[in-house]
Structure formats: C-alpha cells, structure tokens
Fold:
Amino acid sequence: MRWILIIVLAIAAEFFVRFLTRNMKDKKKREKLLAFIWLAFGVVLIIVWLIGRFL
Structure:
C-alpha cells in the first residue's frame, strides 16, 4: 500500500512540475528538469529503503 502511495505522489509531482513549466521556451531544459526530479525521487526512495532496512 505504501508503494502505491509513493508512485501516485511521484506522478502527481511530475504533473505539477509539467504544469509549472508548460510555458518554458527551452524544451530541452524542461526535460532535464523533469529527469532530475525523477533521479532525486529515486535517490530519496533508496535512502529511505536503506534506513528502514538497516536501522
């Protein structure tokens, strides 16, 4: 159940960022920003998993 909530929050965050950056002229910069957000989200998930596993 927790993973479903995390996935839904990630998708909602991406839609929110896409909404905020919809008028950006540079599409490449926009896609880099979205990729960075997904990377950061993955890193946070791994850190949370490691903390939960080893503590």
User: Anything to note?
Assistant: The mean pLDDT is 85. Residues 27-54 form the longest helix (28 residues).
